[in-house]
């Protein structure tokens, strides 16, 4: 029975007032995406398993170890999405968005699911903000996507965040790099962990991502992809740096950056913070020019990024970045007796129609308990209704902060009177 009242391992509940903080951040993300020309897309929480096998890659840890895959009642294999790009690419193809002309700019808020060891900033159910751009090959597109991410962090006031960039080349130059890696890691065969021994032949690039201390130390001496870039890939990477320089965006070239998903090509980048410990990457992305063709479409360049919402919230907290105050009850109407309760309900409804956060008692409390509740929820004003107030048509509005009391007529427009009283109180506070 205890399991019925406990969230599954690796998941968490988001409760008020934390959800208001999330809404505040989501508003910033949505507005910045729209400013940069992106439109919102919403895709299913599960997809056909093959979509992720073909896009993410059969040899990745995500596909081999972490996906939540099951057979539905129609004997179909479906998977809870482990990331957002594949679903967005599938939707672009299914709905032929390419007919509207390139570039196609999409953004989304999505929950993702990976079966891995939970730790700070890493959960089995986690949330991402992501953007995707399809149909743009020039490095100016890479720079624009990176600038969008930077605009978000700048607007939120995030400090001490470093942008690290790299190029992992195209399939042609990456094949030479893979051969060089295979030769290098083969010379350390006896020291590699069991997982990396399996990667050695299938995909030695994945060894660069290994979390084993021994493999990580060996990887420090591995060849760098930048030494194997073909002329086109090198020109693209140089172009990206020129555009970032023109935009005044500071960056560091980090040749060790790789992506955990196979669909990435050319540009890869990360925004990294030193305030989050081991889980310092807050945003990661890059280019995936082969993804659409892998899914059955015509060759179409693509790029984007994913921003982890949980890590972003942790970062804002670590840097003591203040978010707007949570909304609270503006007026609580206490009542004594059924007639007064009915009138309190009517006034509350009238105020709510005018976008005033008003409440009245719904639990049958005593007057003393009602006032205690009003104080607990931080009500800005209170008003008490009883037989005397109903008979006289006048009630007293009390400012809970200044204790000032103002009479209000019950037979006139309550919302107009309340607006005038609160406006006057705000003027006096300055």
Mean pLDDT: 93
Gap between N and C termini: 55 Å
Biggest sheet features: 8 strands, mixed
Using only C-alpha atoms, the radius of gyration works out to 28 Å
CATH topology grouping of the largest domain: BirA Bifunctional Protein, domain 2
Beta strands, count = 16
Major sheet: arrangement of strands: 1-5-6-11-10-9-7-8
Low-confidence stretches: none
Number of domains: 2
CATH hierarchy, class of the largest domain: Alpha Beta
Percent helix range: 25-40%
Shape: elongated
Strand residue percentage: 15-25%
What does this structure look like?
The protein has two domains: 12-170 and 230-318, BirA Bifunctional Protein, domain 2; 331-425, Anticodon-binding domain (Rossmann fold, 3-Layer(aba) Sandwich). With 430 residues, it is an alpha+beta fold. It starts with 17 loop residues before the first helix and ends with a helix. The protein has helices at residues 18-35, 49-55, 61-66, 85-94, 139-156, 171-186, 194-202, 213-219, 231-247, 291-294, 309-318, 338-353, 367-376, 387-392, 414-429, and strands spanning 39-40, 46-48, 69-71, 77-80, 104-113, 125-134, 161-167, 252-253, 265-273, 281-287, 302-308, 331-335, 358-360, 381-385, 394-399, 405-409. Helix 1 packs antiparallel against helix 5 (139-156) and helix 5 (139-156) packs parallel to helix 9 (231-247). The strands form three sheets. An eight-stranded mixed β-sheet has the order 1-5-6-11-10-9-7-8, sandwiched between helices. It is 40% helix and 20% strand. It is elongated. The protein has 15 helices and 16 strands.
